[in-house]
Amino acid sequence: MYFLYFSSGGGLWANVVSSNIAIIVVFFANVVSSNIAIIVVFLAMAIMIDLVSGATVSSHLKSDHNIPPNITLTSLQMKSTIPTTQNSRTHLLSLCSLGDSTRHGHQLCWGDMEKYLKRKAPSTSNNTIDINDLPWDPSERPKMIIYHPNQRDEIRRKYLVRWPCQPRSHEFPTKNIGTKPRRFVVSWFDEYQWLEYSVKVDRHIVSIEQKEKKGTDAFMTDGFNSWSKKDRLKLHEGEVNSIHRMSLKKCEDLLNQNQSIAAALHKQTELMKTEYHMRLNASVEVCRYLLENVLPFRGNDESESSLYKGLFLGTLKLIGRTNGDIGKVILQNAPKNNQLTSPKIQKDLVTCFAEEVLKFIMGELGNDVFALLVDESSDVSRKEQMAVVLRFVDKYGIVQERFIGVVHVMDTSALSLKVRGQGYDGASNMSGKFNGLKALILSENDRPFKYIVLHINFIVAVAKKHDGVRDFFDLLVLVVTVVNSSCKRKDMLRESHKDRIQEQIGNDEIETDKGLNQEISLVRAGDTRWNSHLKTIMSLIALFQDVINVLEYVEDDGDTGATRLQASGLLSYFKTFEFVFYMHLILTILGLTNSLSQALQRKDQGILEAVDLIRTTKAQLQILRENGFDGVLEKCYSFCDKHNVVKLDMAEGYVNTRNPRKRMNISNKHYYNYDIFNTVLDMQIREFGNRFCEISTDLLQNMAALNPRNSFSQFNKSSLLKLSRMYPCDVILMTKKEWFLNMNLTSIIILFVMIFAIVNGITDLARLMVESGKHISHPLVYRLLKLTLILPVATATVERCFSTMKLVKTDLHNRIADDFLNSALICAIEKEAHHNVNNEDVIDRFQKMKTRRGQI
């Protein structure tokens, strides 16, 4: 029997030489009962003991002596039941020998003693944070000491890579210092590149000393806002050996991993560095290829025995086979702990690509004005994703719309989206909130509140408010589902259409030429695909007789009673005149608005051109309402004659097919002309009118003064002055006389008429102004022009992003994390910017993100 005593008095002596050398711990204890000092020598191999922090007993000791996991040395300090003196407080723990000590060794006998031991809770990551959620404003950054020790260097690197926070386009507020108003000056950013400004508290805050735990509170936490004393900045910067310069040097050294302790302890030869660079560059190339082509990275089984390990490893293996030099340094030929193929490495590389793409986009934007286009949609895992697109005018005077990210949001209502100004496309989250929200936005900022022109599918949405139109679209979706639900039915539809085309060609009923009479199928309509409803109706008209044949087959030989009942109901509805009338009415409306739909999908579409198209479309709808009924009715009669559908006499009384016994006391003409035709068109015309509120109308009228069509026929000085006052923070405010003298508008317009006489719109005008250099000589005119061009016209670009999202996050890859989804989407959508990203920039960012095993 052996006894091991832990003394909490002064009788503990330890000498920790190395983890590879036996540690001799000698415990001196005083046993009161025997008054004899017992010295127990305990030998252990490769164990590091931290008596101060109570580090967990090493796994070596645990495996040798069966010590339960997660037991700390401080846990062994139990209350003793043995009397002790003041200088000798001992705690007893029995170390007994079980069996033959020469064969089994000694094990700690826990027994009833286990209940006195405090187990250490399993380590969790609750005290770690998401690096991507770090606050950017200097005043909101907490002290580095609150972060987990293992994350601090990574957090420092994250800030240093993005550093500094310099909102150059911010409108810096003024404050009275003494008798004069003072404020922060943007040029100080150029003079002191380390300078950071907090928009939230209107103060300059130095964060590099905060990262190094040095400096004074005046600059680190409280901030500096004595704008009249600029010399304080130079004084704070100090001499070569000042705290500020030393902290700045340490920050630079942190990003340079070649100067780190790990690099000094593990020297790498030039050959090792070259091989590491080749291996990393190969992984970067694979990431670039997969991101450009929207391909998945991971495989279901990436073990050594797997035949398919995913596209990342498979492509990397292909590169190794085709290039012998690279093949010698990658995969199995690379160090086991530095192959650069793990999922974390893949995510880091994708993040680096995305950040470089965003850097390219921010370079295009600069410090110029921009607008945000925001829309939401759910992904395959039923998460609500909000896509954000920037709309701005680049340095060539061309309107650009750039995707900058997708965010998982819990609430997409307008009140939860904190931006300076908001406009809407009539989505459901605006219903019932318009007036109050408009007042809220205008109370918080003086930007013009603008109602986004339209989402072209609102025509279908508005038409569905009519009961008959809603039933028509519901049954349209149902017939597409029934016909396309099996391969046999699709084959029947295809063969029926082929036989009918051949018969018509034989009877010389249709023309034959290259590209004519192609195979077609029923197109499924989609809420996010513009013109899809028009294509569905056109395909149904072209395949009407073939669809009838398939429905008759399903009615007779359907698999289930429910399927046969569906087919019977569809046949009954399709052979009615009411269905034919609804189909041709909706086809006429969608065909009339198709040109508007095509124009609104252009990224560079200007607001003024869009307004002209909307006014033209609205006028055409009004003409159709007044004079179009007879034309639609004639098309319906022709269709009925061709497909043996019973025609109705418009002079006869209307009979409701759903309730034929109920007398309506109206004629067929009254029902189809007034209750359907006029009602549906009135709803469309009214919706076009509601798309503009009063302030939007004034805004558009003032912007029309910049329209170069017909030699600036709509030019008006007062309108431009009103337009500038709508943007008080974006255009320098002057008195009316000073403004006219500064702009010299009359001479400018005469010059523009001479140079840009053939320009069709403000989009071309901005581009030509840049090409001719007039944007420099007339900056205020160009500023107003850009403010007009950045107003969003439609949300087509955002909806295209959701189409790409369905390719990235699929049913088979539905567990992609939000960060990886965001980064992959940025690279997949912004292909031009992604193509311009340099591999070396990605490698440099990758090395600075975290501590890497390899050096370059």
Description:
The protein is mainly α and 856 residues long. The strands form six sheets. Strands 1-5-6 form a three-stranded antiparallel beta sheet, with no helix packed on it. Helix content is 48%, strand content 10%. β9 (197-198) and β10 (203-204) form a beta hairpin. The relative contact order is 0.08. The protein has 37 helices and 15 strands. This is TTF-type domain-containing protein.
Helix/strand layout:
Elements: E1 2-7, E2 12-15, E3 23-31, E4 36-44, H1 59-65, E5 90-96, H2 101-104, E6 107-108, H3 152-162, E7 175-177, E8 180-182, H4 187-191, E9 197-198, E10 203-204, H5 208-211, H6 217-220, H7 231-237, H8 243-255, H9 261-265, H10 270-292, H11 311-322, H12 324-327, H13 343-365, E11 371-378, E12 384-393, E13 399-408, H14 434-444, H15 458-463, H16 467-484, H17 487-506, H18 532-542, H19 544-557, H20 561-574, H21 577-592, H22 594-600, H23 607-627, H24 629-643, E14 653-655, E15 663-667, H25 668-690, H26 694-703, H27 709-712, H28 717-726, H29 736-743, H30 745-755, H31 762-772, H32 774-777, H33 779-789, H34 796-808, H35 818-829, H36 831-835, H37 839-849
Antiparallel strand pairs: 1-5, 2-3, 3-4, 5-6, 7-8, 9-10, 11-12, 12-13, 14-15
Helix pairs in contact: 3-8, 10-11, 10-13, 10-37, 13-35, 13-37, 16-20, 17-19, 18-21, 19-20, 21-24, 21-25, 23-25, 26-28, 31-33, 34-35
